[in-house]
Design brief:
Layout: E1 3-14, H1 40-43, H2 54-66, E2 70-71, E3 74-75, E4 78-81, E5 91-94, E6 101-110, E7 113-126, E8 130-136, E9 139-145, E10 152-158, H3 165-182, E11 194-204, E12 214-219, H4 222-241, E13 249-254, E14 259-265, E15 275-276, E16 283-284, H5 287-295, H6 301-312, H7 316-323, H8 326-339, H9 343-364, H10 376-387, H11 393-406, H12 410-416, H13 425-437, H14 440-447, H15 453-464, H16 471-484
Parallel strand pairs: 12-13
Antiparallel strand pairs: 1-10, 1-11, 2-6, 3-16, 4-5, 4-15, 6-7, 7-10, 8-9, 11-12, 13-14
Helix pairs in contact: 2-5, 3-4, 6-7, 8-9, 8-10, 10-11, 13-15, 13-16, 14-15, 15-16
Length: 487
């Protein structure tokens, strides 16, 4: 490719406050009756006065510190003027030239390389109402639900440091993880509490000047961000190759067609006619407030991953996977707590089961880890049954899913499902002789050096014993039998 991709992201995060940004209405608007959480302020009625939510400011400071930003000594709110049906006042109360925080950074790993994404700014603003588009026999029309209007948001804006859709995805995964660790927001993209706008341009490899920027608006999933950026790279490459001008504009992503479409010509800052919000005085951010918030910052994913490597001897790749989700990291440590002095020795096995079987079941049943039913002690007990040879891996996985869905003691489940390994060596030996007698080709293949045939023979014995024999014991007995006797 003759072009370099340049991407910047703007992420809007709904904050977990009890009330809205500038009024006392509840911020818990999800699944509430339409237009039931409103007041003169969030309706934008004349004469209503905004009152700043201090908790929203504190959560913004908390996020800023976690993202290595400089928190401003003074900040103010501004009116951002634009005309759109979901904007109740005809303007949005946001921040322009004195944002809450600036000059942050977030490290990501892409293709095994560490890359720093600079954060230009973090500012506070209010969310808009929600348009509901309808279509019936009489035609298409839109309705307005004002419950969301005024919900506190932070907007996190990167510098144009992202060079690929893959890096954009990694940045969003890391940022969303941090938001959840901080408990400042749910960061649920499907519910709209974590929304992304992507700015993308292409420039020739040797050019200093950036290309014409296109904004892709309101992307609500990692998949949408990734696919829309991929599409824009192809579209803009074609434009440049054919000398077709690229227009600075806002485009929307059509998920069903996997294309972006033009929505409107992109506004400049001057088009918004920013001016200071006259009803809200500038706000002094007290240094003691910043220091007190800094003291209670939790252990973040990157710090936790490094501790897992050191404390439990887990490699960086698995540590990163375990710690990207706080609930998974906490569950992992709660399991290891049950092993007490053997925690470090058991960490790799627990990690393998969590990243393998547990992760598979979470995806299969589309479930959050908080809703699964395995207790830390029963997780440990299941691994002990495998270690003692009472269960083989195949049976353990059946029991693991039963525990995942319904809870329960693994030994009791094994007994109720008749999965306990009950074949000892004396029971297994005649089965092996029988299997070998009907598989002469497997024997000759093994004796000619094809050792992978051993797995086939183990499987045949397991099938005959209905999974009630230990695979390791079977393998050892087979190896001895094939070595001692000439077939």
């Amino acid at each position: 490719m003759n072009y370099q991709t340049v991407i910047g992201l703007e992420v809007h995060v709904q904050l977990l406050t009890k009330s809205k940004m500038f009024c006392d209405c509840s911020s818990k608007y999800q699944n509430k009756p339409t237009n039931s959480i409103v007041c003169p302020v969030c309706l934008g009625l004349p004469g209503s006065l905004p009152n700043v939510n201090q908790m929203a400011i504190n959560l913004g400071i908390k996020t800023s510190l976690a993202l290595n930003c400089n928190v401003s000594s003074y900040t103010k709110f501004d009116r951002k003027n634009y005309s759109y049906p979901d904007l109740m006042k005809g303007y949005q109360i946001s921040q322009f030239d004195m944002p809450l925080a600036t000059n942050g950074k977030l490290k990501i790993n892409s293709n095994n390389n560490e890359h720093v994404i600079r954060i230009n700014r973090l500012h506070l603003e209010e969310d808009v109402a929600k348009l509901i588009h309808k279509k019936d026999l009489e035609g298409s029309y839109s309705l307005l639900d004002i419950n969301r209007s005024g919900i506190p948001l932070i907007e996190i804006v990167t510098e144009p440091d992202i060079t690929s859709p893959e890096e954009a995805r990694e940045y969003l995964i890391k940022l969303r993880s941090i938001i959840k660790y901080l408990e400042v927001g749910t960061a649920n993209m499907e519910e709209g509490s974590f929304r992304c706008d992507a700015n993308i341009s292409l420039k020739r490899l040797n050019d200093e000047k950036l290309g014409t920027k296109v904004e892709i608006k309101n992307l609500n999933s990692l998949r949408s961000v990734y696919k829309s950026l991929k599409y824009e790279i192809v579209r803009q490459t074609h434009c440049l190759d054919s000398n077709t001008p690229i227009i600075q504009e806002t485009r929307g992503w059509l998920e069903d067609k996997s294309i972006t479409i033009s929505q409107r010509t992109k506004e400049y800052a001057s088009d918004y006619r920013y001016f200071p919000e006259p009803d809200i005085p500038s706000i002094k951010i007290d240094k003691n407030t910043i220091e007190n918030i800094k003291k209670v910052l939790p252990e973040l994913p990157e710090e936790k991953s490094k501790r897992f490597e050191k404390q439990y001897g887990i490699d960086k790749y698995n540590s990163d996977l375990l710690t990207i989700n706080k609930q998974i990291a906490d569950f992992f440590e709660s399991i290891l707590d049950t092993f007490q002095d053997q925690a470090k020795e058991s960490a790799k096995t627990v990690s393998n089961w969590m990243l393998g079987e547990l992760n598979k079941l979470l995806k299969k049943h589309a479930m959050e880890i908080e809703k699964q039913k395995i207790t830390p002690l029963n997780f440990k007990n299941l691994l002990n049954l495998i270690e003692l040879g009472i269960l083989n891996n195949a049976s353990a996985k059946i029991i693991f899913e039963e525990m995942f869905l319904n809870g329960g003691n693994p030994k009791e489940i094994a007994q109720s499902k008749n999965l306990v390994q009950s074949f000892d060596e004396n029971d297994i030996k005649p089965v092996i002789k029988e299997i070998l007698s009907v598989n002469p080709k497997a024997i000759s293949d093994y004796q000619s050096g094809k050792e992978n045939v051993l797995k086939f023979l183990v499987g045949q014995v397991m099938k005959t014993t209905k999974g009630k024999a230990n695979p390791k014991t079977i393998e050892n007995l087979l190896t001895n039998e094939l070595g001692e006797n000439k077939y």
